[in-house]
Specification:
Elements lengths: L1 H17 L2 H5 L1 H6 L7 H26 L4 H9 L1 H33 L4 H16 L3 H26 L7 H4 L6 H29 L3 H27 L11 H6 L4 H34 L3 H15 L4 H15 L1 H9 L10
Length: 349
């Protein structure tokens, strides 16, 4: 039972870190998969393999070298000088993604709950601060609640879309995009999300000493991410192309259900966004603390306030401009992770 508990904690933390505002809202899935038509079914399979393989490898590498943060891992992958530069770029990317998560939370409040956008931002910031002062244990605890609900509602989304006129769209939708762009999408998507996830997966790989728990937790996490991608793609495809106009397209899908289920689903969307915000801000604060020798207790409110300022730009604008850019910048990191042997590793000097 203890072994299974560790496996589930690893998988839940992995899933909760990857599944953020873009994923939960449906925007990320539309951008990288659904708009490319029936071929998205194949590219989601590729992304699932990458998440499973490289997620496990990342945690094992971090544990083998007892890394303090993802900066230690990047020094091993790239060398000290280039690794420092890559870590700085990752730090900037994490800050950008944190603002996207926060903006996504604000959009849930304004678009789905008819509450002020600013209220959503401030409520989320306050809750994040209360939990993040407790560190990794709080992140793992929140994911243990939110992630099982995500999986259940992925099934409900598919069930809800089965009786729609466009239920077969995932098999027949065509795309005008180039073949190269379609086949690059799963690699860009995995590269971006894995690069951002290292902020939590590195300390998680160090915290969980059981190698088998890391391996099986990574398998369960990667496969579940793939299942959730496929479920969301199926449901979003059934409403193409009209669904493209919404900031929170998944919220529009569940409106057909109504009642208690609709409210619970909105809670799940918000929870998915919130868990990734926690993960990104936590990893970012650890990195700033290590690099500049500033106290975590000082860095945390500073990062949250800065994210609040940038989130004023708006969710859809941020995600459509930042995510493809960060995905391209993460491709070098992905390639090096693929070719780098997991062991033996030496701690960085």
């Amino acid at each position: 039972m203890k072994k299974w508990g560790s496996i589930l904690q690893v998988s839940f933390t992995y899933i909760g870190t990857v599944v953020g505002a873009g994923f939960a809202s449906g925007q990320e899935i539309l951008q990288f998969f659904t708009r490319y038509g029936w071929m998205a079914t194949i590219t989601i399979g590729i992304a699932t393999l990458l998440f499973t393989w490289l997620g496990i490898k990342l945690m094992l590498m971090a544990g083998a070298m007892n890394a303090k943060s993802y900066e230690d891992l990047n020094r091993v992958l790239f060398g000290k000088r280039i690794g420092n530069a890559v870590s700085l770029l990752t730090m900037v990317s994490l800050l950008g993604v944190s603002t996207v998560m926060l903006a996504g939370a604000g959009s849930v409040f304004s678009e789905q709950l008819d509450l002020p956008y600013q209220f959503g931002l401030i409520f989320t910031l306050t809750a994040a601060y209360v939990l993040l002062v407790r560190g990794m244990d709080a992140i793992m605890a929140v994911n243990s609640v939110v992630v099982p609900l995500m999986a259940v509602f992925s099934i409900l989304v598919v069930w809800n879309a089965l009786d729609t006129p466009g239920a077969a769209n995932w098999l027949r939708l065509e795309s005008d995009y180039s073949t190269l762009r379609i086949w690059m999408a799963p690699f860009l998507y995995a590269a971006f999300n894995l690069t951002m996830s290292q902020a939590v997966l590195v300390p998680l790989g160090v915290k969980v000493k059981d190698r088998q728990a890391l391996i099986w937790g990574g398998v369960l996490g990667g496969v579940t991410i793939g299942f959730m991608l496929m479920a969301a793609h199926f449901a979003l495809s059934s409403q193409m192309p009209g669904i493209l106009q919404f900031d929170i397209p998944m919220g529009q899908l569940i409106q057909r259900v109504g009642g208690l289920l609709q409210w619970l689903f909105l809670f799940v969307i918000y929870g998915e966004i919130f868990t990734t915000l926690l993960a990104d801000v936590y990893g970012l604060c650890l990195q700033i603390e290590q690099r500049f020798r500033w106290s975590y207790q000082i860095v945390l409110p500073g990062v949250l306030v800065f994210s609040y300022a940038i989130s004023q730009i708006g969710f859809k604008t941020l995600i459509s401009s930042l995510y493809p850019l960060f995905g391209m910048l993460s491709m070098v990191w992905l390639v090096l992770m693929m070719i780098r042997p997991s062991e033996p590793l030496r701690p960085p000097s």
